[in-house]
Amino acid sequence: MGKTIAEKIIQEHLVSGEMVTGEDIGLHIDQTLTQDATGTMAYIEFEAMGIDQVKTELSVAYIDHNTLQSGFMNADDHRYIQSVAAKHGIRFSRPGNGICHQVHYERFGIPGKTLIGSDSHTPTGGGLGMLAMGAGGMDVAVAMGGGEYHIPMPRMIKVELKGKLRPYVSGKDIILKVLEILSVKGGVGAIVEYGGEGVKSLSVPERCTITNMGAELGATTSIFPSDEVTRAFLKAQGRESDYRPLASDPDAEYAETYTVDLSQLEPLAACPHSPDNVKPVKELKGMKIDQICIGSCTNSSLADMLKVANILKGHKVADNVSLSISPGSRQVYSMLAETGALTVLIDSGARILECACGPCIGMGFSPNSEGVSLRTFNRNFLGRSGTKDAKVYLVSPETAAASAVAGVFTDPSDLADEKIEETFDVTMPEHFRINDSGIIMPLPPEKAAEAEVLKGPNIKAFPETRPLEDNIDAQLVLKVGDNITTDHIMPAGSRVLPYRSNIPKMSEFCFEVVDDKFPERARKAGKGIIVGGSNYGQGSSREHAALVPLYLGIRAVVVKSFARIHKANLVNAGILPLTFRNPEDYNLLEQGMELKLSNVHQGLHENKIMLQAGDKEIPLDVDLSDRQKDMLMAGGLLDYTKKNSLN
Ligand code: MIC
Ligand code: SF4
Aconitase A/isopropylmalate dehydratase small subunit swivel domain location, by residue (predicted)? Predict the structure, then answer.
């Protein structure tokens, strides 16, 4: 039987397990990346493993999330990461050098390699033909130490692209269409592979927009073939030698296949508060806008920025709109300067921000009360912008720029007049400007031994763990509904991000958007259980959404279904993830009930555990690999690795 692209890469990197859908597989990881908001924890965990030099082909530590530096905390975190990276063989991408995913595919990504990153948008690298996956910080630490990365073998989904996009429709509209078809749950447990005639008309940055937002499908990752377009991109980056062609076999088999006709696509928008709440822009036309943000790891490439500049050229940003633009990397920024496009952006009245995540992670730029904000980003979860009653719409750079000029929601196809080519067709340079001054190389191993690791007072120890108890008596401290995101569990933004290495302080913000009394209640209860609906833990890979509940005494999370990375993070933290055998039993449970899980050890073994709530008995399922069960018994991944070799 023929193989898909992902199956070929998995086969080349398979260390343990069998490639049977749903079975646990262990993969050798070639490259890792971290960003600062998850990186501090990942390096604290890496240090706890006592390994001198990383064992990967390449590991990069990026600083792109917490670049605000209000107070000493972020700067201390940056200094810690820089010092730990220098000591252990990890390259360090300085603040201002760009957003991790953008810089990584420009400078480091290689077709056919495996990459894991402590950020859920790591699949961006799939646009280059990499098998790139988001993971918890602890999993990245293990991979840096040479350990395998474990996932359930995904099923394969094919998205066949036919036809060619019209000029004012772009990669963002394609992925919004796929989100409309599959929803935020449709990709769970799957790898989404793009194929068909339409692929060759898409540039690498456009492909990366699509694979980036595959995270919002809940997919393990998304991947494109590596073809002549990939070669040309790598060549323009001075890295043609990294090129390797990759395609699926003609008789490869897919569990599901969908077709998107590019020639029929129109500009789309994801409406509040979910990336799959998709509508055509023409239905939103005329809605008044307060703010527009262009950038993020989804849409901050040179091509995106040049299109924006073309649309803004000769115009002013409407008086009622505040427009921010964050170029994705120093390379993009310097090329905007070189081509003169930066002057156009500045002259339009846009606010040019640093090359970083910025507004995407709520680092400033929160909209006004009840504000309407159009963003070229990938997430519009309630409250993520920092303004709880704001309405965030996710759109393409073309829609964002056209709307910035008009001051109201505008369909960029309305600009498709005689100047259509000038406006929408941008030619990519044959050679990108290459300046890696923002990357600091690690110390040579002989100097690394004496190098000091610099930890500031905000960097606190890892929360206490314990081996799994056989009987758990705990209070139902929180009951939530479907599609709870890790932004609900552990919000980000400028108030909270400075404490990413201080779990006790972070715990004050846990579940704030849902119920701000939760931390106090959980602390009082001592031991707690959380109950939730389906797709619990979707979104960000932040392991803080597991470490903070661990700190607050949470022993188990019982839900209808989990998102992949969060479930793995719960296990890594030593918290039991359980699912209802009969989803309707969710209705029997009420917040405040005293719950009992008995004979947990045996239940773990038999894949079923009984939950007692008063006189009710509720059967729960255990869906975990043997390795995950051992990890839970030990008290989480760190305790497990202390006992076992890194596998
Ligand atoms: C996000 O987009 O939510 C983040 C911030 O990049 C996160 C990581 C984090 O919480 O630090 C992600 O996507 O994993
Ligand atoms: Fe940064 Fe936003 Fe991308 Fe997350 S989604 S890595 S916060 S730009």
Answer: 512-582
- Residue 418 reports pLDDT greater than 70: no
The residue count for the chain: 647
Q: Which atom of ligand 1 is nearest to the CA of 360?
A: 2
Distance from the Cα of residue 183 to its chain's centroid: 16
**Ligand 1 centroid from CA 607, angstroms:** 32
| Rg (the chain; Cα; Å) | 24
Q: What is the pLDDT of residues 432-475, one digit of tens each?
A: 999 999 999 999 999 999 999 999 999 998 899 999 999 999 99
CATH number for the region 472-644 comes to 3.20.19.10
Q: What is the pLDDT of residues 28-38, one digit of tens each?
A: 999 999 999 99
Q: Is 65 a catalytic residue?
A: yes
**Could you tell me the strand order of the sheet in which 155-162 lies?**
221-223, 190-195, 155-162, 256-261
- Is 60 exceeded by the pLDDT of residue 569? yes
For 401, the enclosing helix (H) or strand (E) is helix 397-406
Q: Is the pLDDT of residue 511 over 80?
A: yes
Does the active-site annotation cover 119?
yes
pLDDT of residue 647: 56
Neighbour-count burial of 319, counting CB atoms closer than 10 A to its CB (0-12 exposed, 13-18 middle, 19+ buried): exposed
Asked if 555 is an active-site residue, the reply is no
Return the structure tokens found at 482.
Answer: 């479907």
Beta strands in 408-500 (DSSP E): 439-440, 472-479
518: tokens are 């939760």
Annotated active-site residue 64? The verdict is: yes
Which atom, in ligand 2's list, is nearest to the CA of 101? 6
Kindly give the distance from the C-alpha atom of residue 291 to the centroid of ligand 1, in angstroms, as a whole number.
Answer: 22
Tokens for 563, please give them.
Answer: 């998102």
Question: Does residue 360 line the site of ligand 2, with CB under 6 A?
Answer: yes
What is the C-alpha separation between 610 and 441, in angstroms, rounded? 53
Confidence of residue 87 (pLDDT cuts 50, 70, 90): very high
Catalytic residue among 203, 300, 373, 540: 540
- Does the CA dihedral 580-585-587-588 come out positive or negative? negative
Give 297 Cα–ligand 2 centroid separation in angstroms.
6
- What was the pLDDT predicted at 425? 82
- Tens digit of each residue's pLDDT (9 = 90 or more) over 318-331: 999 999 999 999 99
The ranges of the chain annotated as CATH 3.20.19.10 are: 472-644
- Identified catalytic residue from 88, 150, 379, 500: 379
pLDDT at 643: 82
State the CB neighbour count (10 A cutoff) for residue 236.
17
Provide the CATH number for the domain formed by 269-424 in this structure.
3.30.499.10
Q: How much is the pTM?
A: 0.97
Distance, CA of 121 to CA of 182 (rounded, Å):
18
